[in-house]
Amino acid sequence: MHQLNPVTEQIQISGIRRFTDLVAKYPDALSLTIGQPHWPTPQHVKEAAMAAIEKGYTTYTPNRGLPALLQAAHAYYGTKFDLDYHPEKEILVTAGATHALDISLRALLEPGDEVLIPGPAYPGYEPIVLLAGAKPVYIDTRADGFKVTSKTLQANITRRTKVLVLPSPANPTGVAYTREELEALAAVLQSTGVYVITDEIYSELHFADGHVSFATLPGMRSRTIVIHGLSKSHSMTGWRIGFVLAPAEIAQQMVKVLQYSISCASSISQYAALEALSHGQRDAEPMREQYRQNRDMVVRALTEMGLEVVVPDGAFYAFPDVSTTGQSSQAFAQALLHEARVAVVPGDAFSALGEGYIRLSYACEEQKLEAALARIGQYVARRTAQA
Ligand SMILES: Cc1ncc(COP(=O)(O)O)c(C=O)c1O
What family is it from (predicted)? Predict the structure, then answer.
């Protein structure tokens, strides 16, 4: 038999998944590994999906998505984030933000291209870049509060740089960029041909008002592809609905990749999404408020334990430095699970730049979070006393 694709062979199963498999062996553990809101999908959205099934809306839709949903996405992201993309030419409905990232990168990349990824990073970017024959280049953000700066961006751009991936708010660190920070990056990119893929899947869980999309900065729209979706804003991870907002000439190429990868997103999920975008403009607000309070609790507790943490601006993750305990990310996470029965994700799941950190998700009830933090505190105190 011929060899399988060496690139797929080289790709590792996500470190998050590997660790969640281990956690399953500890049923009494409190898990802070979860990457989705703990709230259910809003009832009105579920009902719209049930009605779609009843009405027989179970056939293929246009590749780009239902026209009514594209109109709704145009209005929704226009009102919320000041984005202006033509509903028929510049918006595509995808199978989650993951698929939106996939078709964006596949439409842009050629073998040998370099893609800049601020690290530590969400593990979903690198494999797509590798599968396209391109090269992921991590920008080390650890000394800059986990954000890429004009200086580090400039230092990493080469002749081969095709794309900068820019998540805000980011996973696993929760940091988000201010307008001034984005303007500094735009000033560097202005004289280059580099495209920007802004992953804004957590934008509705941005704790500060006034989330700024990079595409709205003067001169940046033509090079920017915006990734959105309902997984986090409407607690719809399993429905698989994402959106790409991109200039027409890029969207026109992406739709071919979409067509030959999935034909279209699930029709039932699209009807649910139509309801979410038409009548669920405020659905994220209670989650955002709870996660903001949880964020404050986590930062306070970690600081009291003596662990350094960059204060997250959004999403539902904190990424503290545990290297002061003398343990690697893996050793810390495994011992914490085994001895204290708390599950967190080892930082090295987010590229080598995450070594020495752990990711904890605070997408859970306050009481559970409080109990888990108390156990982490006791574990850290024991470790520190031993060291
Ligand atoms: C930064 C980031 N982008 C994209 C995704 C994927 O989202 P979706 O479930 O819509 O594919 C995630 C999921 O955790 C994420 O954290």
Answer: Belongs to the class-I pyridoxal-phosphate-dependent aminotransferase family.
